[in-house]
Amino acid sequence: MGQVREMSIFMAGVALLLGGLLSASACTRSSVKSEAQGPIVLIVVDTLRADHVTCFGYSRPTTPSICSLEKDAVLFERAYTPRTQTTPAIASILTGLYPHEHGVRDLHSVLPDTHTTLPEILRAHGYRTGAFVSSFVMVNDFSGLGQGFETYDDHLTRKEPFRENFERAADETLTRALAWLDSAGSAAFLFVHLIEPHGPYTPPPPYLEKFALPKGGEKVPLDLVPSYQHIPGVTHLSEYVGRYDGEIASADAQVGRLLAHLAVRGWYEPATIVVTSDHGESMGELGEWLEHGRSVHDAEAHVPLIIKFGRQPDRRIHGGSRVAQPVSLVDVFATLLVEADLPLRLLRFSDDLRRLVDGQHWTGPVPLTELLHRRRLVLAVHGRNCMTHWKFRAILTDEGLLPNPKRASQWTEAAFEPARIDDQRKDECEQAVREVTPLVVDLLTKKRDFSVVQRLDVKEPGFRSKFVRSRQDPIVPLKESEREALRQLGYIE
Ligand SMILES: [Zn+2]
Asked: What is the reported pTM?
């Protein structure tokens, strides 16, 4: 909300986009983070399928560092992204909202600055806030995801091998992130985004050799694979998978470097650490090859989620446990607010995952993965043991996602069309749909203002290259109007 011009606009935006769900009572807790409580660290490894993470059941040692957290963390076995693309998913993590709510429906849409983001709230409570990202689509001018970060480092230093996109290697991103963290101190919110597992799969040594798989078995239908994924001379799925695993391992090594750095500083134990991904990658499932963003099935929607909760003595959550309940990445928002000892008011979808660990009643809604396809909203309902596709009839207009008024009377269970169903789980799937139907009907029948979404033209000549430049991110204090708005919401005193 750095561009907020007037208090009234800001408050209207907050009221609209949080739906009045945050009450206005005053916060009674400390408004300044204590050094002793440790940093909050959010690590997003792009394009990381849950089933390629060793502690999620993968047979290869791709993720020793990420899985080293397991003994101190809670592992959410069934976490789902709300959208299988980078910027919509990360906007959801940072706002606690689904893409149809925050308006970043796909790549190249900018998160409206009227939203209240997690770093904005944390910053208002005395946290230093820094983000270090590694992909062209994450550039702030391109995504709006820098809201609330004092430092949003999107300086990208290299070109992808087979297309004009720019990115940054994980070791470079980490070097800058760790330098910033040292200067910021432990009362910090650090967001690190690593791009490695995203195609093309070109792992650096020694990971290329270490994870290479022999050529054999199924061939990749190269005519169905995005051109940027083509590696000359590489033809078999096994070879691509080996390279993909090598990329995961190279990113994992940098996660290990970050964890070691926290330990050296004495910040590991009190830190809250989240490791997840924005989406997975199809490896031939349902006819999708080496890509993501066009499907809601598990290969793309199921992501790892590991949370090491901070060691606050009065609210300690012990590590080493696993949660099988399906959850959504939108829950990270509420969870980190509670971790930061900040008030959590009723949010529409995002709920505190701590409830699943410490035995409280879980009231979080069924996680959804949404996709706009041919002017229809496609939803995956990840309820119970139901992991299937359900189509919901809705109309996408130029103004955004709106229901077709002529069909309002049909918004009932019958409006769902099971696209695929596993007979053995039919009853459970139908029960999940019954649970989620009122939610989705309500969701689609409320008009929402999507007109603020700004979509950028990536075909403009030189568009990508103009974002590749050194950035000096000045530390800008919160405006008084922004501070007052957060005060009225009860987030600061
Ligand atoms: Zn991504």
From this structure: 0.81
